[in-house]
Sequence to fold (295 residues):
Amino acid sequence: MKKIAGVDIGGTKIRIGIISESGEVLADLTMPTKIPLYPYLEEQLLRIKKEFPDLTGIGIGTRGMVDAATGIITFEKELEGWQGTAVKSQLEAATGLRVEVNNDANCAALAEVQLGSAKGFRRVACLTVGTGLGGGFVFDGQIMNGSNGGAGEVGHMILYPNGLLCGCGRKGCSEQYVSGSALRRLIQEENVIEPETGELVMPQNLFRLAGTGAAKAITVRDRFLLDFATVISSIQAVLDMDCVVIGGGVSDSADDWWDLLLEKVEPLKLKPFEMKRAVFGNEAGMLGAAMLLID
Ligand SMILES: [Zn+2]
Fold:
């Protein structure tokens, strides 16, 4: 049985799974992200290799943009010194194992396609609605990387020209309207109050509150879901996928909004496609990272 280390590198945590070919998690380790990241990562992986001498490869999913062919981080501002690191070649030299590197959202998409809700679909767009809005596209089993590792950045499709300023420096990006942070902003703007506490409603409770008929909560919900549906529709116009998978923190409350989203997407479809809820949560990154090694 092949054993692969699947590594998910986030801004605060690194999660490493020892994963079998079939996606079984044999061990699951979490450690804080430390700067400078590269020497620390190498040290951790050498230690893990000693513990699991039968490892056959290492897959890495990281924040930022990655040149998947060379395994070099092409863009990352938060993790100081990480941009420009030749992760693949350095780690291969250090460990003697095959190493593949890709973006974390792409890895999450790959996990859903190989092991999760999009199994059997050939053209899949995976959207992660967490603090921000991320995406990954997997066509015929291959991650679409783009020429700079920047494909799938659905959060930076412009939804409202000259709209809200985005972290990327442009205005009106969809992430400013479809994300956990956007939901928080809309709740503040509409002053949506949780009747039990008298405080602003928590984003994860907004949709439940709307379900009880609270007018302001309904306003926020409907605006959010229409923007979300519009993003999905635009992606289809470009990609003609057969399946859209939706995951991320905001989808934890999907029981309260899923059917309404489907209703809003339906009239915006150019061709039929399936919509699925992601099977994996936080483990998607490390699982998909490991799947980078499965050809
Ligand atoms: Zn942007």
